[in-house]
Amino acid sequence: xxxxxxxxxxxxxLKKVSIAVTSFDEALRRFLAxxxxxxxxxxxxVGLAAPQVNYFHRIALVDVSGKPxxxxxxxxxxxxxxxxxxxxxxxGREGCLSVPDYTGNVVRATRIRVRAxxxxxxxxxxxxxxxxxxAVQHELDHLDGLLFLDxxxxxxDLFRRKVYR
Amino acid sequence: MLTVVGQDRPGIVAGLTDALYRxxxxxxxxxxxxxxxNFTIMLxxxxxxxxxxxxxxxxxxxxxxxxRVHADPIEGRLHEHVEPNARIAxxxxDRPGIVAxxxxxxxxxxxxxxxxxxxVGGTADRPIYVMTIDGHVPGGTEALERALAPVRRSGIxxxxxxxxxxxx
Lengths: 165, 168
Ligand SMILES: [Zn+2]
Prior knowledge:
The structure holds 2 protein chains of 2 kinds. Chain A has helices spanning about 25-40, 130-145, and strands at about 45-50, 60, 75-85, 90-95, 100-110, 110-115, 125-130. Chain A is an alpha+beta fold.
């Protein structure tokens, strides 16, 4: 196992769209072990997407269980994830391992449902809200080559804080 | 730190930054705001030139657009960000003393203001005051609830919320 190097913007590779995982084999398992170790080696970091570690497959890992008092699904490994439902919007502050020393406000859905495969290729569905929903949306953006910088809103938008569609 | 103030019109930022760029000056962080119809900007610049030379560099543009320019040597560096952990949003009927009342309460709670933005809206005869403050308070937002209770009792709407920056 190893802690993988994290790509840092303006590295253009962070803008690549990742491809679907098709074989749930030993190579994937080995990558996932390193991927998991990498996330847990980053203090305060609640998620990681495979393209951040130079592996352009649709894999994300979210774990907000270290934050007290918020609802969560524990360690969420999301392979070929898709958001099937989204509801509400809220502004929140985000940073990124791939964008050191800069944080900014981003609008995200407050509740989502995600369908994704696990390490064995089995489809699972998760309901996420609040902080965890934000983390999932942030990581899934990486799979499409998007950074939170692509979604920054101005501070005047803070008053849009909770708008329900 | 360059400070430029004057009557607002389109193209001021472009004109200023072009003059600085041509003079070989690097720009750092900046904050521009239109305040009551006035153009205001504070701009971190990096240059070997002395403050007076910077003034000279943008002097022609500033003179042509009646802008006042001020330059201060500063110690500041980039990559010195402090993450806010609380946001205070305030609104109420505009009256003298709101900012002083709110910020004194915040200071007493040990709150360090990192970003403050305020505006006056409503109508001329019934103005409203709206202010958002981001900052850092040791020990979290509970201390702020206590500190701002008297402000709330005086009729100002105060919303206090933690900022938990997501890193992923
Ligand atoms: Zn990220």
